[in-house]
Amino acid sequence: MSRAKLKEFGIELPILPGAGPHLLPAVSGTEQRDELDEQACRAATAEWVKFQSEAGLDVISDAGQYRLEEAGYLSRALGGFKPGGLVRLYGNKYRRRPVISGKVKWKASFAASWWKFARGQTDRPVKGHLPGPYSLAALSLDSHYPDRRKAALAISRELRREAEALIKAGCRMIEIDEPALGLSPEELPLVIEAVQVLVGRLPAYFILHACYADLSRVYPGMLDIPVQNISLEMAASDMEFLDLLAAKPFGRDISLGVIDVKAKRAETADCIRARIKQGLGALKPERIWVVPDYGMEELAAEDARGRLKTMAEAVAAARQALSQRQDR
Amino acid sequence: MDAFSRGEIQESDLAAVREETVREVLAEQARAGLDIVSDGQVRWHDPVSHLMGRLGAVESAGLRRYFDTGTFYLRPRVSRPLAGGNPLIAEEMKWARAVSMRPVVAALPGPLTLSRLSSRRGGPYSSPDELARAIVPFLAEELGRLADAGVAAVVLDEPSLIREPESLPLVADCLEVLAARKGRLPLWLYPSLGDAGPLLPGLQALAADGLILDFCRGPAAADALRLAGTQMCLGLGLAGCGSVRLESAAELAEFAAKLLRKVRGEEAWLVPGGTLESLPRENAREKLLLLAKVRDMLLGGRTGRERPQRRPVRKPVAKKRRAGQSRRSRSARGRKRR
């Protein structure tokens, strides 16, 4: 059904499409900073789009060079957000947390022009990207809204305007980043409601990305999130999510995370193929996309290139094996 | 840590940096006017793997987000039976106690949370509950060491209980074992990172000396406390760590005073609601100052710096004798306890 929807939009994908991650590493001039160097971002975006196309990926990411520093990006994109101070994530890893200091307000299009630019660099389909309303509410330091629900829904309404801008620009595949899914299982209804406000009746194929959370307490309820594809970090958690599918079939497209982007050592093509095979054991092949677990922005650029090439090779091999199996 | 991982400094250099940082954290809390301080767990990689690694679960099953705090932890993989014998955090706490001007409280993640945040795949424990029960004897042993280390109290942090209220009987069993081994060391339970209101009746029956409730996550905890009161010592989680907004000290003091009328336990503490680690340092410092100010308001305008030794305590903060008593009787109680 989801492939039919894509076809409606003129997008035909091969079996097991390989897709780029929503963030790729900074190259010269796009390192994390408050002020955006537009020229450097354009050059880096063009470079990454070209690389993904040449590597053989079927769905191209806009590479997110304009949003590598999340707190600064949000403050540029949406009124009401400002960058907060540094917070320790774990070990010696720090990041600035976004702060909601006022009413969230869409100011002007912030993702659509980058999508359009990326689309102009390739003849392959390019995903647009939006932050998730629930995660922005849950993972920002909110000083304005009285509760998380009010914050999430207010953000949803404003992000919907950007979704509309993306669609107006021609984008028909939009990925929504919701890394907070599963962190507070009792708030799953809010996630569903917030995403519904954002995507309801819009003519696009929506992908929701979740990662680094225990989803066992929100499955199968999470299948009520109104998107066509759910993209999951799986490699880092030993593909454990697949165990949950015994309770209820997934029943929609899935982007299978097959590269552990936090691992110091890159996986081999065989390792990635084995993960794809695990996915094929639990899901229909026409439902599966193949992606890295998460954004690759923390890797060195060369490392990320190597891993994506390996993933593309593994996808090609898995596709060939599948085709041979079907021929028999 | 980066320099150490690159081989640019020795382990002894790293240890010195860590010690210096802990000193700084302890001093910062004392300067803010806190009566009881913590070491800030600055030596810990994260709230889970630090402890589980010392129980032998040294393999990692990947990175996970630590609830909705914006922080992460390395998910331990328990692939073999847990093994203890060595101190978990007692040595760190002993050192902190020795260099701190204020009493030091230790925080330990509870067995429910540790078991739920670990992977058991391929290991000997067939269920999360079995793993939780396996963790308990090691925590019990550690309580003895922490008592010897001179900590003022131990807070057992159980954020998983909020998400899994049906596990209250398991937590009750675990606490029975811990209570039997802790001697006179006060043991507090903190079902953190959520509104524990619906759990309050069950929590009151647990074998803990004190209970900490986060009042920043919703109204249910306050409503339940107003309704039922408590015979336990109570920690009031007041300054919310999910926001950089600084609450009004006067409003918090008024809110706390009303709740404290329902507390029949010996002590009450004022603590941050949630984990300060989720805040930028400057905002965290402001929250600590706020708690000290609220304490001072509750005590009638006196400042913590004038008579710091008179007050009970806790980790990031402050405070207090029971509201609703006369100042004279509060002082008397304070002297008696000292």
Question: What key attributes describe this structure?
Answer:
heterodimer, A: 328 residues, three-stranded mixed sheet, B: 338 residues, alpha/beta, 8 strands, globular, disordered C terminus
Q: Would you mind describing this structure in some detail?
A:
The complex is a heterodimer of chains A (328) and B (338). Chain A has helices at 2-8, 38-55, 70-77, 112-119, 133-139, 148-169, 188-199, 241-244, 269-282, 301-327; strands at residues 60-61, 78-90, 93-106, 126-131, 141-142, 173-177, 205-210, 229-232, 253-259, 288-292. Chain A is of the alpha/beta class and 328 residues long. In chain A, α5 crosses α6. In chain B, 42% of the residues lie in helices and 14% in strands. Chain B has 13 helices and 8 strands. A 6-stranded parallel sheet of chain B has the order 3-4-5-6-7-8. In chain B, α11 links the parallel β7 and β8. In chain B, α6 runs parallel beside α8 (168-181). The termini of chain B are far apart. The A-B interface holds A 84-93, 96-97, 99, 138-139, 141-144, 179-180, 183-186, 212-214, 217, 236-238, 240, 260, 262 and B 1-2, 45-46, 61-65, 67-68, 70-75, 116-117, 119, 121, 163, 194, 242-245, 277-283.
Which two chains have the most extensive interface, and how many residues on each? A-B, 35 and 34 residues
Average pLDDT of chain B works out at 88
Number of helical elements of chain A: 10
Low-confidence stretches of chain A: none
Total helical segments of chain B? 13
In short:
The complex is a heterodimer of chains A (328) and B (338). By secondary structure, chain A is of the alpha/beta class.
Explain the layout of strands and helices:
The complex is a heterodimer of chains A (328) and B (338).
Chain A: H1 2-8, H2 38-55, E1 60-61, H3 70-77, E2 78-90, E3 93-106, H4 112-119, E4 126-131, H5 133-139, E5 141-142, H6 148-169, E6 173-177, H7 188-199, E7 205-210, E8 229-232, H8 241-244, E9 253-259, H9 269-282, E10 288-292, H10 301-327
Parallel strand pairs in A: 1-4, 3-5, 4-6, 6-7, 7-8, 8-9, 9-10
Antiparallel strand pairs in A: 2-3
Helix pairs in contact in A: 2-4, 4-6, 5-6, 6-7, 9-10
Chain B: H1 2-5, H2 11-32, H3 49-54, E1 59-65, E2 72-77, H4 90-99, E3 105-109, H5 111-116, H6 128-149, E4 153-157, H7 159-163, H8 168-181, E5 187-190, H9 200-203, E6 210-214, H10 220-228, E7 233-240, H11 249-260, E8 268-273, H12 281-298, H13 327-337
Parallel strand pairs in B: 3-4, 4-5, 5-6, 6-7, 7-8
Antiparallel strand pairs in B: 1-2
Helix pairs in contact in B: 4-6, 6-8, 11-12
